[in-house]
Amino acid sequence: MKEVNISDLERKFEERIAAEIRIEPNDWMPENYRKTLIRQISQHAHSEIVGQLPEGNWVTRAPNLRRKAVLLAKIQDEAGHGLYLYSAVETLGADREETIDDLHTGKAKYSSIFNYPTLTWADIGMVGWLVDGAAIMNQVPLCRTSYGPYARAMVRVCKEESFHQRQGFEIVTTLAQGTAEQKAMAQDALNRWWWPALMMFGPSDAESKHTEQSMRWKIKRHTNDELRQMFVNATVPQAELIGLKVPDDNLTYNEEKGGYDFSDIDWDEFWQVVNGHGICNKERIEARKKAKEEGIWVREAALAYAEKRAARRKQAS
Amino acid sequence: MTKPKALFEYLIRHADDTMILGQRLSELCGHGPILEEDIALTNIALDLIGQATELYEYAAQVENKGRTANDLAFLRLEREYKNVLLVEQKNGDFGKTIVRQFLFDNFQLLNYTQLLNSSDAQISAIAEKSLKEVKYHLKHSSEWVIRLGDGTEESHQRVQESVDDLMRFVEELFFQNEVNELLQEDRLIGDCEEFKQQFYKNVNNVLTEATLTIPEIKYHQKGGRKGIHSEHMGFLLAEMQYMQRTYPGMEW
Amino acid sequence: MSNKEWPLWEVFIRSKQGLSHKHAGSLRAADAEMAINNARDVYTRRSEGISIWVIESNKIVASDPDDADALFEPSNSKVYRHPTFYTVPDGVGHM
Fold first, then answer.
1. What is the span of the domain harbouring residue C71?
2. How many Å apart are CA B168 and CA B6, to the nearest integer?
3. Model's pTM, two decimal places?
4. For a disulfide at A87, which of A204, B148, C26, C73, Cβ 3.0-4.6 Å?
């Protein structure tokens, strides 16, 4: 009897997905759908939070008042985006602090791009232009993802992200049009960030273990390779416009497919960094752990005070 | 001393206060102990850097030597920075960051309120805009002082230690010399002695609610307004000025 | 103990005078003041609001999705509640 019920629910669920009806927190959903979402959304949230660190590395050294304010506002947005996404995770019955603990123990992943170091001011430009650019490619389709709270969080995120890429491109453009030293700084940064940015779209479709199911459930709307191609097509002309060279000798425009052909990605490097052996993996997690540990007494104090005050108010009334 | 020189000096003092505190808070960006507070402190940092920008811009205009707001913010020598010692003190734990902010917010609130009456339209405009921001900063920091002071035994002890440590820098907020006297003649600024009592009363009210006490201070620390800083300042500036010093004269 | 969390709050924002408060999202805070402050910093960084409501998430009573048919389907058949149900002669203008 119960079997019939479950398959009935599953059928109804699949019908809603097919009809593009959003799934909401209290609706019945297959356990795997829930797990996939928790994994993906918390990974996304962690990426926003860890993503603050490479940029935070330059906020105290930003070259002028305007850049400092913009960078602060941008990093603050990342924290906000992390919060929106953790909220979405919590609607699935997952606990924010537990998902954060999973990040700290290495059980949960975050975007590998943030394990690359930001070495010069030009890197901050690249993070905005390329990293946020790639993130936007990924995120815009997620505004239509099948899970309501995730889709709504992404609508907010995308709206706010729109200035991030522009400010990055503005930084890079200023450098590309600046002194020889500045132009070299920009080119060097592009050389270092181009390939990691392409890796952000994840393993190739043939290797991606989650893509197929996620596409069927309309959690994902495009495959990794499709998004990567879209990104290359959009970004190469931008580099040309400001006189920077994309570090790929095989880059050619393919009329037939209406997009660029490009070299194979160094997947060994990709897996090395994903598996925790990038230059900054350890520092990034240490920094987040430290922040959490230093907050314990503060969280406890605020809670103790709230309880005390509630008790006092009760007594008074 | 001429009046424009005095005005320049006065603007620089307060621009440096907000700039250096903004710089300190920005160190925490991405490292705050609680995600929501990370966002709140960054907001405050942004407000302070915004205030600094307006004050530097006006100072540059008053000086009229072709220096820009950025030149003033990033290209002076340590001895030329005139911020109070309080704002350059290290962040410490969250409690110390909050107490430093709380003391500064209290001063800013009363000072900007007084500056609303400035005979200089630009100063009163800056004061009016900043005051809205400062009211929120003070609400935020006061609430936290109370939570931490009246929270757990550990938080009480930690935050009391921060109060004990930072109170010695408070008197310097009220530093005045011939610069102030000159500007007071034309009512460009007020006499901060007038609100000093109110300041201590306000601070004391919140600390009392927080079950904290103001320590007896025998020796007040001052020097910042004359450009004589604590040892922390050089490192802070080395970081803040890194780009401008390494790549002189470039646009970013 | 270290993982004892602050309560979850739901945030509602009025974006401008004349509009009702709309659910914006949720956040964690130890008390109501903090929830308001955090809501301001998290959800109105771009002047999205002029008024904020917060309420602890566990204080919200929600309808059960399993009851959705019983609760909401009956009204689908009551088309006479909508003005387009009625025909009025041409030339009557706006009504």
1. 8-85
2. 27
3. 0.93
4. C26
